[in-house]
Amino acid sequence: MSDWTNDLKVEFERAAQARIQKNEGQMRVCARRAAGIAIREYLTRQGNRPPSLSAYDLLNLIKEDTTLSPALRLIADHLTVRVTEEFKLPVDADLMAEARTLCQALLPDFED
């Protein structure tokens, strides 16, 4: 198993644990990190050096990528949305599920 595959599985496991513990903030962080791992691997496979290690920066980069479907760019957008002052997400989205969808779309060989 490659490093990125293991790293993705670890982040999704952490996200699931955070959700069980009702820590949605930590779940969002883990979902974002998982997406960042997938984006770095995706860019590398495209022959591009990832311009940043930051998952947030990489999500902002791909939400402008017109070669990706509007649905995937919307997921990237959801993963970068800031929470409200009440620490709630201002969009109706399951970021853990959306991050998984993004990872599987970018890396079809990723099996969760």
Q: What is the CATH domain class?
A: Mainly Alpha
Treating each run of at least 4 consecutive H or I residues as one helix, how many helices? Answer: 5
Ends apart, CA distance between termini: 12 Å
Protein structure class: mainly alpha
For the record, the count of structural domains works out to 1
Attribute tags:
112 residues; mainly alpha; Four Helix Bundle (Hemerythrin (Met), subunit A); 63% helix; globular
Characterization of the model:
The chain has helices spanning 3-20, 24-45, 55-62, 70-80, 95-106. The chain has 112 residues and is mainly alpha-helical. The mean pLDDT is 92. It has a single domain (3-106), classed as Four Helix Bundle (Hemerythrin (Met), subunit A). It contains five helices and no strands. The longest helix has 22 residues, at 24-45.
Which helices and strands occur, and which strands form pairs?
Layout: H1 3-20, H2 24-45, H3 55-62, H4 70-80, H5 95-106
